[in-house]
Every structure is written in structure tokens, then in C-alpha cells.
Amino acid sequence: YDDSYMVCAGVEHIYNETWKFRFGMQYDDSPIPNKTFSIDALTSDAIAICGGFEYTISPNASFGFGYQHINFAHRNIKDSLTDPPTNGKISESYTESVMLEYNYNF
After folding, report:
1. CB within 8 A of 21, min separation 6: which ones?
2. pTM exceeds 0.90, yes or no
3. In angstroms, what CA-CA distances link 63 with 19, 24, 76?
4. What burial letters (b/e) apply to 9-28, b meaning 16+ CB within 10 Å?
5. What is d(CA 58, CA 75) in angstroms, rounded to the nearest whole number?
6. What is the DSSP string of 30-69?
């Protein structure tokens, strides 16, 4: 494995006492070099974008919604050391997530 890093940034805009809006981005550098990459644990450099909102129902309760899109970079592997070898082109791929939340303070 190689040293890697992740960079994240996010903002929250409080529109009023009822609405909050959030936006964020992330870059994740994969620690797995091509030589030891395996299809058992697919990971590549990734860029994520997310956004969402929170709606305050009462002083004790709120409802939230979030969306995240993660784009994984393609890989061109020619020198795999895994058994069986994972040589070839791994296409760019993505995942999308939707989150719902309900918060209540007792």
C-alpha cells in the first residue's frame, strides 16, 4: 500500500430558523497501487459531491435529506501481482446515495 490522503470541504448555509442547506466535496486518493489492486476490494481515486437540507419542525425535531455522488477514476492495470492477476482496464464508475433522517431531542 502507498501513503494516501483525503481532502474534504463543506459549507452549511442557515437560511432561517427553519431551513439549513449543506454542500460538500471530497477527494480521496486510493492507497492501493495497481500492482496489488484486486477486484475483491474495488477502490480507485474518488471525487464525491454531496448536498442536502435540514428542515426544523419544532425546537426538538427536524427532518433532513442528503444526496451524494461518488465518481471513481478508471485504472489501467498491466503489472498485477495478485492471484489471479487483475490485469486490464477498470472502467470509471460511480455510486449514488440518498439519505433521510429524523432527529428528535429529548
Report:
1. 12, 13, 15, 51, 52, 53
2. no
3. 10, 19, 43
4. eeeeeeeeeeebebebebeb
5. 49
6. ----GGG--GGG----EEEEEEEEEEEEETTEEEEEEEEE
Cα–Cα dist 37/44, whole Å = 9
pLDDT recorded at residue 98: 98
Least Cα distance to 72 among 41, 96, 94, 40 occurs for 94
- Reduced to 3 states (helix: H, G, I; strand: E, B; else coil), residue 28 is strand
Which portions of the chain are predicted below pLDDT 70? 41-42
C-alpha cell at 62: 427536524
C-beta neighbour count of 32 within 10 angstroms:
16
